[in-house]
């Protein structure tokens, strides 16, 4: 067939290879599939990976991320140094490392979701699974650090951080189970689209719950402490703002807009 300048079958792997521009377009219905000289099939509708900065930007994501970055990289190091690094034991250090990873993982996973391309889907799953682990272990160690023998945590802060932590565990477990159910539904020979979407929505809602109120609680408690607001007032106010941000962010994600 070489005379026709089209198809040869003499490449090393034994794949059929294509001459000229090495791509043949096959139209099936309204879709064009391209067969490349690697012998693989690509889908024209598959947009590949988006740019790193072209994530799910919204003012809610930005606010939660700025609060988180301030808390992790500015407030916490200052607070620990002021109190005395030697005051903290190994349990606390492990807790703080796992908690910070969970927080940063949420920032990333909300900004880049699997629909942004195969690379982002793999990273989302890898970062997400690690965050599920660090969230559960980080919470347990945090409880030991806050309530265990030798703890220097104030009673009010320990109560606040424990309620945030319980919410965090609930969100982590429900969020992970929901995406597993979504994947299970997707793999059925005839998926129930309604339930597939519902599971995904639960995943999004609970993971935003992990990001905004759960990870954000310790940070807002410190902010309110700094402006002299009583914890009993500041905590419910902060929680309400974060809770309202969940449906607003879901809407922003749906409509692909920044507000
Ligand atoms: C704090 C934020 C998030 C965390 C920690 C998180 C965590 C995870 C985890 C652990 C998985 C993998 C499940 C598995 O295969 O074992 C996953 C998958 C997935 N997540 Fe998220 N997620 C977050 C936010 C989001 C958001 C905001 C969306 C959508 C807007 C989303 C959409 C998905 C989808 C569609 C999958 C399935 C990917 C696939 O099966 O190919 N996630 N996520």
UniProtKB/TrEMBL annotation:
- Look up keyword Lipid biosynthesis and say if it applies: no
Q: Which residues cross the membrane?
A: 57-76, 88-111, 123-148, 155-179, 199-221, 233-253
Print the keywords alphabetically.
Answer: Membrane, Transmembrane, Transmembrane helix
Top-level taxon in the UniProt lineage: Eukaryota
On whether Transmembrane helix is a keyword of this UniProt record, the answer is yes
Protein name, as recorded: Cytochrome b561 domain-containing protein
Which taxonomic lineage does the organism of this UniProt entry have?
A: Eukaryota, Sar, Stramenopiles, Ochrophyta, Bacillariophyta
